[in-house]
Amino acid sequence: MGQSEFNDWMAFYKLEPFGEIREEMRNGLLVSTLANAHRDRKKQREPYSTTQFMFPYESPTGSHEQKMSLKDKFKMVAAYHNARLEAEQWQSSAN
Q1: DSSP secondary structure string for all residues of 37-91
Q2: Nearest to 66 by CA among 14, 10, 2
Q3: What is the pLDDT of residue 91?
Q4: Which of 36, 52, 56, 79 counts the highest number of beta carbons within 10 A?
């Protein structure tokens, strides 16, 4: 994998996390669905939530990215895209 592809994956991960966090969400959803299907509604009136079956984690991206608005995320992607285009144009003009 080249540097350009690695940078693409890093930018994508900031917008759409994948990996362990996503797996925890998927497993939490599966287990909460099973628990709710088999719970005694008299003893457990409220349904179980997905987060009750997930390990707590700290976001690897930090709090700044979590608080970014959708508009700011689009600006970040546009800036990244424009920088790639400029780099490609510079490389093609250098050759």
Answers
A1: HT--TTT--SPPPGGGGS-----TTHHHHHT--HHHHHHHHHHHHHHHHHHHHHH
A2: 14
A3: 76
A4: 36
- On whether the CB atoms of residues 81 and 89 are closer than 8 A, the answer is no
Q: What angle do CA 57, 2, 84 make, to 5 degrees?
A: 90
The residues spanned by each domain of the chain are 1-15+61-95, 18-60
| Residue-averaged pLDDT of the chain | 81
Whether the CB-CB separation of 29 and 54 falls below 8 Å is answered with: no
Task: Name the residue type at position 63.
Answer: S
For the entire predicted model, the pTM comes to 0.44
Per-residue pLDDT tens for 53-86?
887 766 555 544 456 788 888 888 888 888 888 8
